[in-house]
Amino acid sequence: MKLDRVKLEKIIYEDDKTITYIFSKPQGLRWEPGANIHLAFNDFIKEDQPDKSLVRHMSLNKGWDQGVISITTRFHDPVSPYKARLQKLGLGDEMTVFGVNNKLPMKRLNKPLILISMGVGLSTFLPYIQAYKENPEGITSLLSLQIDRGNHNLYKEVLDFDYQYYYKVRQDLYRAIKDTFDPSGIYYIVGSNPFLREITSLLLGHGLKKNQICLDKKDQVYKTFDL
After folding, report:
1. What φ, ψ does residue 216 adopt, rounded to 5°?
2. For 72-81, b where at least 16 C-beta lie within 10 A, e where not — what string?
3. Which end of the chain is more exposed for a tag (fewer CB within 10 A), N or C?
4. Domain ranges in the chain?
5. Sign of the dihedral through C-alpha 214, 76, 61, 7
């Protein structure tokens, strides 16, 4: 397992509970849209074993070509010990990263992509949107639907385009999914497990095929979502 130290270069307060941390990027490290990375405190190895309480999987919300590692997280009371330490980080502090993986690769199959997210789950989709803006080849259209009861305009400055829609009420999101439903589309969903189950059930009820639904889950977990 290759471990890299990264330095905190910038902190962005998206709102009073949501923070984006931007770290330096190790030379040669690359990833594709949808990837996540292990972000650990430097003392996470204890007696030759990793302390899992000091490590989190974090979605990478910028492409590798932007030269940084950028992650966004939300702090709900009571915060976990991990996030309590994260809140105390200052510019120049270092953390450890390792194990980039991607269970949500961006598919260019000449079909529409529909991105459905809950809360800061939208962070996962930022690289998809940027990649589509730069090169829409193989994607006939892109639509992003997000529900967030907190910050109704998370990333609004970054996502100032015609195919991003925000909702605060779950029923409004369901209505939007129904109104924009595309039986040929590929649907990506990010959120809590109950949210994934609800949206998956809704889409299957509209007649979408199981292989058109993509979740940020390991293959063996898909069965628990009737996929």
Report:
1. -85, 65
2. bbbeeeeeee
3. N
4. 4-101, 111-225
5. negative
- Kindly write down the DSSP assignment for every residue of 83-134, as one continuous string: HHHHHT--TT-EEEEEEEE-SSPPP-SSEEEEEEEEGGGHHHHHHHHHHHHH
Residues 60 and 69 sit within 8 Å (Cβ to Cβ): yes
Sequence-distant (≥ 6) Cβ neighbours of residue 1 within 8 angstroms: 98, 99
DSSP-assigned beta bridge partners for residue 39? 56, 97
Strand (E) or helix (H) holding 173: helix 170-179
Query: Is 4-101 assigned to CATH 2.40.30.10?
Result: yes
Domain 111-225 fold is: Rossmann fold (3.40.50)
